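Support request from a user on the community tier.

User writes: "When I paste my C-alpha cells into the form, the page sometimes reloads and wipes my input. The last time it worked, I copied everything first. Here is what I submitted, just in case something in the input itself triggers the reload:"
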C-alpha cells in the first residue's frame, strides 16, 4: 500500500518552507541594501497616505493626473508652511537647550549635593559628585551630532526629492507596479494575493494616517499642558515647543514613545522646581490616558488591532535588527504578519475557518460581571443549604 499524498497540504508545506527561506534570505541581504529599503518603505507610507485623497478627487470626476498634481502641490505647500513657521523657532529652542545644558546640570548637582548632605548614607553607594560630570560629558556630544546632521542635509534633501518624484509616478501609474508584483505568483493564487494585499494596504494606511493625526493631537495637547503649567507657576518651563514636537514625533514609536516623551520636560522642570516636575509628569500621564481611552479608539478605529504584548515583542525584534527605523515600522510589520496569519495561514491550517474575533472591552466587562453574579449566587445557595442542614 503506497503513501497517500495530500497535495493541498504538500503545496502548503512547500510554500511555507519557501516563504521562511525567502524571509531568511531577505534578512541576510537587508543590511547590505538597507538604505534602499528605507527609501522604499517611506515611499510606500507616503503613497498610502496620499492615495485616498487622489481616489476621492478621481471619484468626483477629476482626471487622475490633475488629482495627483493637486495633492502633491498641497503636500509641498504644507512642507513650505512647516519650514516657514515651525522650523526657525524650533531650531532656536534646540540651540538654546544645548547651550543651557551646563546650567541645568549645575542645578542638578546643587540639588543632589543638598539631598546627600541630608542623607549621607547615600554617598556611600554611588560617587554622587562624579555622576553629573559623566552625564554632562554625554550631552556635550550633542554639538558634534548636530554638525553630523548638518553635513548630511544635502543627502536628506536629495532623498526627499527622490521620494516626491517617485510618489508622483506611483500615484499616476499604480497598476503596472501592482500587476507586476502579482505576476510573481501563480495565477490560481491571484485572488488570495489581491485579498491579502488589500487588507495589508488598509492596515498600513490606517496606521500611517492615524499616527500622523495622533502625533499632531498629542503635540498640541503637550504644548497646551506645558503652557497651562507656566501660566499657573511663578517660574516657566522653557522650550515647550521643542518638547511638544518631540512628544508628537515619538507617537511613531509604539508603546514606549509616550513614556519617553515625558523624560526631557520632566528633567528640565526638575532643575527649576521639583513640584513643577511633578506637575509635568501628571500632565503627561493625563494626556496618555486621554490618548489611550479616547483618541486611539476614535482615530485608529480597527486599523491596527494588535495586542500590546505583540507590539512590545515586535518593537524589540525590529529595533534589534534595524535600529530606530526598525522600531518605527514595527507596527506595520506586525500588522502585515497578522493579516497573513488570519487570512492565509489560519484558514489553511483549520479547514477554511477564520480566527474568532477578540471580545471587546465591554463584552469582557459584561462577561466578568455575569461570572461574579453566578459565583455569588452559588455561594449563597451553598450557605443556605448548609444552614438548613
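"...and here is what came back when it finally went through:"
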Amino acid at each position: 500500500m503506497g503513501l497517500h499524498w495530500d497535495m493541498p497540504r504538500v503545496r502548503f508545506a512547500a510554500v511555507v518552507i519557501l516563504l521562511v527561506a525567502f524571509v531568511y534570505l531577505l534578512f541576510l541581504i537587508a543590511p547590505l541594501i538597507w538604505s534602499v529599503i528605507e527609501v522604499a518603505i517611506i515611499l510606500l507610507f507616503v503613497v498610502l497616505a496620499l492615495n485616498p485623497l487622489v481616489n476621492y478627487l478621481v471619484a468626483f470626476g477629476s482626471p487622475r493626473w490633475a488629482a495627483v498634481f493637486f495633492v502633491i502641490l498641497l503636500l509641498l505647500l504644507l512642507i513650505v508652511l512647516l519650514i516657514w513657521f515651525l522650523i526657525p523657532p524650533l531650531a532656536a529652542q534646540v540651540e538654546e537647550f544645548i547651550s543651557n545644558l551646563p546650567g541645568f546640570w549645575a542645578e542638578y548637582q546643587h540639588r543632589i549635593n543638598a539631598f546627600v548632605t541630608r542623607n549621607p548614607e547615600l554617598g556611600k553607594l554611588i560617587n554622587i559628585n562624579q555622576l553629573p560630570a559623566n552625564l554632562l560629558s554625554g550631552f556635550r556630544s550633542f554639538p558634534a551630532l548636530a554638525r553630523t546632521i548638518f553635513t548630511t542635509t544635502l543627502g536628506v534633501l536629495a532623498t526627499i526629492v527622490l521620494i516626491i518624484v517617485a510618489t508622483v509616478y506611483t500615484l499616476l501609474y499604480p497598476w503596472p507596479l501592482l500587476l507586476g508584483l502579482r505576476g510573481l505568483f501563480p495565477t490560481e493564487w491571484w485572488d488570495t494575493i489581491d485579498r491579502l494585499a488589500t487588507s495589508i494596504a488598509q492596515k498600513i494606511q490606517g496606521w500611517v494616517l492615524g499616527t500622523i493625526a495622533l502625533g499632531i493631537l498629542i503635540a498640541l495637547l503637550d504644548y497646551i499642558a506645558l503652557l497651562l503649567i507656566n501660566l499657573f507657576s511663578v517660574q516657566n518651563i522653557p522650550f515647550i515647543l521643542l518638547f511638544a514636537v518631540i512628544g508628537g514625533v515619538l507617537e511613531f514609536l509604539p508603546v514606549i514613545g509616550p513614556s519617553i516623551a515625558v523624560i526631557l520636560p520632566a528633567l528640565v522642570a526638575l532643575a527649576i522646581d521639583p513640584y513643577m516636575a511633578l506637575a509635568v509628569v501628571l500632565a503627561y500621564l493625563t494626556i496618555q490616558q486621554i490618548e489611550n481611552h479616547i483618541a486611539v479608539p476614535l482615530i485608529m478605529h480597527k486599523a491596527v488591532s494588535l495586542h500590546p504584548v505583540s507590539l512590545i515583542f515586535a518593537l524589540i525584534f525590529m529595533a534589534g535588527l534595524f535600529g530606530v527605523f526598525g522600531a518605527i515600522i514595527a507596527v506595520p510589520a506586525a500588522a502585515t504578519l497578522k493579516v497573513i496569519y488570519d487570512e492565509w495561514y489560519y484558514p489553511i491550517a483549520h479547514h477554511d475557518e477564520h480566527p474568532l474575533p477578540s471580545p471587546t472591552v465591554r463584552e469582557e466587562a459584561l462577561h466578568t460581571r455575569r461570572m461574579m453574579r453566578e459565583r455569588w449566587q452559588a455561594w449563597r445557595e451553598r450557605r443556605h443549604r448548609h444552614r438548613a442542614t
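Agent notes: The reload is a front-end session timeout and is unrelated to the input. The longest helix spans residues 190-231. Residues 138-142 have pLDDT under 50 and may be disordered. Escalated to web team.
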